[in-house]
Design brief:
The chain is α+β, with helices and mostly antiparallel strands. The protein has three domains: 6-154 and 294-353, 2-Layer Sandwich (Antithrombin, Chain I, domain 2), CATH 3.30.497; 191-288, no CATH class; 371-405, no CATH class. 22% of the residues lie in helices and 28% in strands. The protein is built from eight helices and 18 strands. The protein has helices at residues 6-20, 29-40, 49-59, 63-75, 100-103, 117-126, 231-245, 309-320; strands at 82-89, 110-113, 143-156, 162-165, 181-184, 191-197, 201-209, 219-224, 263-264, 269-270, 290-291, 294-301, 326-337, 341-353, 373-378, 382-384, 387-388, 395-401. Strand 9 (263-264) and strand 10 form a beta hairpin. The protein is elongated and about 105 Å long. The termini are far apart. This is Proteinase inhibitor I4 serpin.
């Protein structure tokens, strides 16, 4: 079953990438979107109308639909894309109120007591194949709840790239003089096209498929437009084209090489030669692509209202009956693309915070049992639901301590 996510996620990706502008960066819009969708699973009639509307607007769909998508993806993990989500709270806060908010959560979402910073960092490492070593946010005494997602992949290409002289990137490339070598697509196994688009004009497309596992795979799509086209428009085209990438379909708007002039263009060089071919009309089209290796590490502030996390904080505060007064939200993402494969990971996190108590004066008394004293051992007998059993409060042992002993070295 195909998850109906492409439209809402494309719109969300446009807003997230806009916060980074044209700087070199990597992000996981899906990782952030999933956190919003997990929060949507906790929404009910008690959720403030304003928060529910803002959350639905950020998600690009109604809350029940988003919640169902989150459960579908997280409860049926992809063999090549590790995923994890967690919802933690302070001990004694969030676990004593109504438990209805737990019912809709994906079954794989970890729920429990808020870890310390070392525990959060360990969670990030465990669920990102070690690619991200530290949690995006630093925990403090004012944090009452935390929501987190992690996505990670490490794949090998079904057919590795060949190596080319970096000058093949083109005389107009600012990278051709800085690099010694680049990657060239192999003669078989990768897909390339020149595609005409309404948003960005003619773009070039390269698709590298990874080795599959149990029928599941991953395709990394690269899309370039003319240098003057704004990054936001190129990213939007890439998301549009990605809709058919998983099926290996020829992109809509693909141009025939015989409709283009021979010679140099800003994005390609087109040549012609006489060959033996089995093409039906005797006109064979061949493509290859030259790309650089690349890697990136980025940290994104997700507090902009359009990204939905103010609504997430309000939704969870209502569902869990927690005194959330403000929030923090960030994403850390890393990726590497090279001759033999692709790896990427992202951890998205949100903290709900409350005010710390006002400053005052504290006195500490050290109580000294330095002479004979009494001891009484009293039983407790809690039976759940606030009820107690017959042993509750019964003194079981008592003593008068008049002969102390040395602390045992053992």
């Amino acid at each position: 079953m195909r998850t109906d996510l492409h439209g809402p996620l494309s719109a969300y990706a446009a807003r997230l990438h806009a916060t980074a502008g044209d700087r070199h960066h990597v992000a996981s819009p899906l990782g952030a979107w999933l956190l919003l969708a997990v929060a949507a699973t906790t929404a009910d009639q008690a959720t403030a109308e304003g928060a529910a509307a803002e959350l639905a607007q950020a998600l690009g769909t109604d809350l029940p639909s988003a919640a169902e998508v989150a459960r579908t993806l997280l409860d049926a993990p992809h063999p090549l894309v590790g995923s994890a989500t967690a919802l933690w709270h302070r001990p004694g806060q969030g676990d004593g109120g109504p438990a209805a908010w737990r019912a809709g959560l994906p079954s794989t979402t970890e729920v429990g007591v808020l870890p310390d910073q070392a525990g959060l960092d360990a969670w990030a490492r465990e669920h990102t194949l070690g690619l991200i070593e530290t949690f995006p946010l630093r925990v403090g005494p004012d944090v009452v709840l935390a929501l987190a997602s992690a996505l990670a992949t490490r794949v090998s290409w079904a057919t590795p790239f060949d190596v080319a002289d970096a000058r093949a990137l083109g005389a107009g490339s600012p990278w051709a003089g800085r690099l010694r070598q680049a990657l060239r697509s192999p003669s078989q196994g990768h897909r390339c096209a020149i595609v005409s688009t309404a948003q960005a004009g003619d773009v070039i497309v390269h698709a590298a498929p990874a080795q599959t596992t149990d029928g599941a795979g991953l395709v990394v799509l690269s899309v370039a437009a003319a240098p003057q086209v704004p990054p936001a428009e190129v990213l939007a085209v890439a998301y549009d084209l990605s809709a058919g990438a998983a099926d290996g379909a020829q992109p809509a708007g693909s141009r025939s090489l015989f409709d283009l002039p021979l010679g140099e263009a800003p994005l390609w060089t087109l040549t012609e030669e006489r060959v033996r071919t089995r093409a039906r009309d005797g006109r064979e089209e061949r493509h290859s692509a030259v790309l650089p290796c690349w890697s990136a590490r980025s940290d994104h502030d997700l507090t902009a209202p359009a990204l939905g996390f103010p609504a997430v904080a309000a939704t969870l505060a209502t569902a869990m009956a927690l005194p959330v007064e403000r929030f923090e939200a960030r994403q850390t993402a890393v990726a590497r693309f090279d001759r033999y494969g692709f790896e990427a990971a992202a951890v998205t996190a949100m903290f709900g915070l409350t005010s710390l108590p006002p400053e005052g004066v504290a006195r500490t008394a050290e109580l000294r049992f330095g002479h004979p004293y009494a001891v009484v051992a009293v039983a407790t007998d809690a039976r759940g639901g606030g009820a107690t059993g017959p042993w509750h409060g019964v003194p079981v042992f008592s003593a008068w301590v008049a002969e102390p002993e040395e602390v045992s070295e053992a």
